[in-house]
Amino acid sequence: MKESTRQIAERFECKYTVFEKGSDPELLEQAYRTAFDAGKKGGFFPAILLLEDHVIEWLDYAAKEICSRDELIAGCGDDGKDILEERFKGYMDDYEIDDVDDFIGNETDGEIVNHFCSYISFRANKLEEDVLLLEIPVKNPWEIIAYLPMGGWNDCPAPEEMISVCKYWYEKYQAVPAAFTSDVMEFYAPAKLNGVDSLEAAREHYAFCTDRVEQGTQTYKISELAAGLEESDVWYFWWD
User: Fold this and answer.
1) Residue 140 to residues 77, 145, 174, 181: CA-CA distances in angstroms?
2) Residue 44: closest CA among 123, 130, 116, 136
3) Band (20; pLDDT cuts 50, 70, 90)
4) Structure pTM?
5) For the chain, domain boundaries
6) One-character DSSP codes across 105-125
């Protein structure tokens, strides 16, 4: 193990496993799913962190500029739905979209996502850098954000908003924040949409991350995203 990898891992004060750069990504995903099941009795939720160049800068910034873990958890509200609705309305206004129905569209085909990909080098289909599989000792999965306080730059929700949205999505979909890079976040959604209408879910995904539609679909329609979400158990978000 590289010394820098060990130093980063020990910041989290929890059990961890290192998957070294160049390893088979399938082994990491299998380990995550095993840890997810084990965590139900073990009192933790797993999280994957890619140790790319920007991760130290991100963690240092979070430690200095963002409130403590306990404060972030204590401040988590029940306003996740309101946050997403306000963001969606704001984007419709900013982009001067008057015909929301046309923007939603009526596509019936979309990409199904059943595997994490944020840590994979697509040229070699191997781990891009060292990766940590953390066993984060939290009672609720949205509290992972207190350990990995992503957000607050570009259009990415601030950590205070992120944790509330994650709480809302867990209660609504049983989806949990699972994999993190400096600009990507993936959720594991074992119940998929948990009976929720796919267009409703896709609108929320767009509000959370507009690039999920603007750069992640071929038609730039919310309905294309919705069609793929129906059978997906991994949700992918990238803030450019």
Assistant:
1) 13, 10, 11, 21
2) 136
3) very high
4) 0.97
5) 3-238
6) ----------S--TTEETTTT
Q: How far is CA 124 from the centre of its chain?
A: 24
Exposed, middle or buried: residue 130 (CB in 10 Å: 0-12, 13-18, 19+)? Answer: buried
- Specify the 3-state DSSP secondary structure of 154: coil
In this structure, are strands 120-121 and 184-188 parallel, antiparallel, or unpaired? unpaired
pLDDT tens string 33-51:
999 999 999 999 999 999 9
Q: For residue 7, give every residue at least 6 positions away whose Cβ sits within 8 Å of its Cβ, in sequence order, or none.
A: none
Instruction: Tell me the two tokens of residue 59.
Output: 């963690």
Q: In this structure, what are the phi and psi dihedrals at residue 209, rounded to the nearest 5 degrees?
A: -155, 100
Q: Which residue has the tokens 């995904």?
A: 205
Radius of gyration of the CA atoms of the chain, in A? 17
The secondary element (H helix, E strand) that includes residue 21 is none
Q: Which amino acid is at 158?
A: A
